[in-house]
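Recap for those who missed Tuesday's class. We walked through two folding examples back to back. For each one, the amino acid string is listed first and its predicted structure tokens come directly after. Nothing is annotated here on purpose, so try labeling regions yourself before you check the end of the notes.
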Amino acid sequence: LTREGRKRICFPSPSPQAVAALLFCSPCRVSVYFRSKGWQRVHDNKREDYKLKWCETKSRETYYNFKEGEQLLYQIPNNKVLTTKIGLLSNLREYERVMNKISKNLNTKKGFLAYGQFSHRILKMEDFFPESFRLDIKDEREAFFELYKDTQIWICKPTCSNQGRGIFLLKNQAGVDSLQAKLQSIEEDPLYRKVPYKAPQARIVQRYIQKPLLLEGKKFDVRSYLLIACTVPYVLFFGHGYVRLTCTHYDATSDDLTAHLTNQYMQKKNPLYSQLKEETVWRMERFNSYVNDKFRQAKGLPKDWVFTVFTKRMQQIMMQCFLAVKSKLECKLGYFDLIGCDFLIDENFKVWLLEMNANPALHTNCAVLQDIIPTVVNGTLDLALEIFNKSLKGQRILPLQTQCHFVLLHNGCTSEAGPRPSKTRSALSIARNQRSLTESTCHLARQPPKAAEKPPKKPSGTVPIFWAFSYIGTYYPPLPQTHTQTPCPNFSHLLSGHPTCMALRRSHGPQLCAVWGVSSPRAAG
């Protein structure tokens, strides 16, 4: 099947009940997994009694007909907040701004954030994300054009494209002037003002890392995986992937994009690809050995830097990206997602996040990928199914029998007070049922006191944990009088002027935007 013309492929369960899995992807790796489980293929595009749907191309009908708590669906519907260039950039900026305000007003350990029962190191964007500007915002666009110097190299990317499509380099003033004129003409075009959706998609410009670390003289990046195996509660995993290299030696002045972009889609355009295909992908073990042999002594690196320092850094960056969008992702029991994360290492061994990709490529066109991709696919589906079934039965999520390749990053059962409410009535009813299961499993919730009883006093010496609610489109019922706590003075003024809080306050009253201090996660429940 071509990538443009996917068909739906159903896998009914061998159980007596009618259950199926509909796939919108090439059935190669995923279908092999289901066949091994005894499921059969069904070619019926209109069936809704499926168990799992692997969705490469998202559609409104897919999510509208989804039955929370009964089915599994690959791809969170609004994962674009994490997997588009503008979405990731904007949310990382917002997260950093809010965290800076919080750290200044709370006595927190410098550089760390207490997150439930965990401690997460807060990274500065400049330490892992290349300097970037949005070209769809006039002020940022003008700031970039004023900043640009003729000796610099910047890379221009469309916000939603993948596989290197629409990417070009800005290497001189003439190229920048041409881009500026084109953007100006688009902004002034009356057609695009009347019909905005016909305008070219928005772009960002990113400072190009001109001195990357090279492997045998070639540029490379590392594809790793962030698996969101469950959203109610959130359960996240990190998975190692592989190293992607260019066919030709690196030259920063080259106009050939195949010398700058490492993905397989671009490398196939190189005339040398058919000869060097097997050398364009390395295992992480080979990469680790190469770094040990070539750079360990010269750069003073610890042994197995790739599997220690580098891996930990990738996990920290992934967690920060997730926390930046955690309150914005749509959460329903049955949603799961696999996100491809691309990292680059410069000559000083500084780790940079290039982008995060929805629906990462699962092709196996070389020997290394034929070994790695099946492991990733099998691990993804094993974990998603096991956690889903445990959630339905009210069982503890950990330990996991199918956790082999992936490393646990975050278990929401131990740090959250229960699932977030959904937007629909049916979802609300399921969320209430799941909350009772989660509360009995995670031991984080408590029953509200009766109206006649006084609320328990906070134990002395307890450090308050503060909870802020600012979910757009999610409606919270008025807080019962018995649950009312004293508003936190250190926190309230931080969010009182936030556009989301102001809009909710105008439309739904002040209780929706109040920030309350409680003494523990149990009290937060």
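Example two. Treat it independently of the first, because the proteins are unrelated.
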Amino acid sequence: MTKISSQSVTQTTASPTTQASTDAVQQYTPSSAPASAEPYHHKANHNQNRSISDSHNSSQAAPVSSAGAKIGFVSLGCPKALVDSERIITELSRDGYQVASDYDGADLVVVNTCGFIESAVQESLDAIGEAISKNGKVIVTGCLGKDADKIRQMHPSVLAVTGAHAYDEVITAVSHHVPKPVQNSKDYDPKIDLISDAGIKLTPNHYAYLKISEGCNHRCTFCIIPSLRGDLVSRPIDEVMTEAAALKKAGVKELLIISQDTSAYGLDLKYKTSFWNGMPLKSKFYDMCQALNQLGIWVRLHYVYPYPHVDKVVELMSEQKLLPYLDIPFQHASKSVLKAMKRPAHSENTLERINAWRAICPDIAIRSTFVVGFPGETEEDFEILLNWLKKARLDRVGCFTYSEVEGAVANDLPNHVPEDVKQDRYERLMAVQQEISAQKLQEKIGKTMTVLVDEIDAEENIAICRSYADAPEIDGHVYVDEITPAVKVGQFLTVTIDDASEYDLFASYQPVQAGK
């Protein structure tokens, strides 16, 4: 059995942002990396950076006519920002623009920024500067766009600045500075009409992010998301399902459901009933999950809060109607720290809820993120968190050391924790979680699992796959040895687990394609 370890990552000082605590552009260590790893900028599920060449290579459905104006695209930040970039690129392509492969070939460059934490702000400002120096014509959009003065002060030559999910404003700004291509019979590209309803995606063909809402109604003290993206605004259920069905039709095998607060979906719509395929559906978390099951593909839930009504969704997982996987940002276990964070459901007994979920669905995989060194966190608070982790035995864990975010209420809280203490607590937490992860993966040896192929290492004859317990890029992998030439990316395989490391599984292939 050939063993390949996961890409190593390391933590950096970061601050969480409500459920999107892992959504910022940042370096951090999920449980799929040793604490002693060398620094690596992890392209996590929560950090979906795309360079100008990445955007070009991924947008395979875009027209390729030589006559169209070319727009370069740099996308930084979380999956929600990536979805915004996909939508903008789709609309530009439908208008006849091409996606440029480099700065030199672009008539203009759009930079979709992240602004959740200071390191993300600096990365965004640097990306804007690079685009200006290498191209000269730059439009800025995304979360950092809320601070247009800061952007213009550092980069006065930017052509336009818009905020997050400002699709129409970006399209208008692009067409103002680079006129929309004239679609006459001579140079019209018929591929424009072949862009699917799913749009152009910047993810691999076999999985895609499906954003069901924007904004957040919570006011966590460490978070600035409401000021960046506003309060909760849910998409009507028929719109969500239409996109989901289009993605399946385009070949997507796995949908990753994202938002700022997935379990609050539809609250702002008062769970309004809409019609999809002639069926009445409520814009409600549980009803949406039931409907998505009808598509017959993997559905993975991210950004879920531990509200009581999540229990019903876990029942769907036990019935194999959803992947038994929950991404829930517990953030801490000390009630005093959670109260200072103003976390929703901070008074809930989360251990009881986890045990209840496992009673309903024994195979459920739970991922979470935690913050150490929050202002006022004592050694006793931290020990409460460590003891909680040992009892909870979560499958995947990411950890942050707290840092200030401009505009966050937590900045003004008393008793900030020294940096060396934060780092010490981070390392201790990750050591505990590493042991838990290793134990849990050892329990999988000998089991048969269905996995989805993400990559093929032809030289080593290995398929790099994921199981139901592994979200793309943030969790572990299942490495399948001695594959046949028939194995392709995006294919489901039935494998037997032969070995395990702290974060990854190693398997042998049974050449029988799994079900869905």
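Answers for example two:
Residues 1-45, 60-66, 188-194 have pLDDT under 50 and may be disordered.
The first strand starts at residue 70 and ends at 75.
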